[in-house]
Amino acid sequence: MKGLLRKDLQLIWASWPILLMILIGGTAISIYVKEPTMDICFVTLLLVFQTVATVMNDQTSGWYPWELSLPVSRKNMIYEKYILAMLILAFGLILALAIYYGVSAITNIAPDRFSLEINLSILLIFFGCGVAPAILLSFYKKETGPIAMIVAALLPIAIILIIMNTVSDANIKEVFMGIGAISMLIYFTLMFLSPKIVTNWLDRSL
């Protein structure tokens, strides 16, 4: 599994100039609009979605069928993507918080704990209800990659909009934090179920 993690991290690192330009652009926008909290989700999700991109790359490059012949179990091959996403989530969150406090200092806007907790909850919703099913769907067929990316974006957005339109301002933070916790449960549930689901898909295709 370490070899697979290294391969994917190198694959993500290969696109660092593009990622850096997007990060600089996003940071500049947050400074311009004086909204440092937007970096929490923007920066972290930008990096985490690269995990889904690695699955799509495996499918389109022809690596995925060949990967099945390696001395690595299918379960570990699939777990590796979810572990990769969690590692990038941790790194991205540290980077995002550093940028957040930096932008707050530049714009003279004091860090807002309420907005910070809301944005962290939104991040978890995207992670559990967007990234997790997107990783799973990307394993189905290479044609499902774009669909997986759409699911990764639209499903969490739908959940967030429902919360914002149905929950009162007095309770919105608690609801977001609760849904964020549930989203992480969904993430780990899909992570542990994915090997069996993907194996069934592969057996049907043989």
From TrEMBL:
InterPro entries given in the database record: ABC2_memb-like (IPR025699)
Transmembrane segments: 12-33, 40-56, 82-106, 118-140, 146-163, 175-193
Keywords linked to the UniProt accession: Membrane, Transmembrane, Transmembrane helix
Name of this chain's protein: ABC-2 transporter permease
Species the sequence originates in: Dubosiella newyorkensis
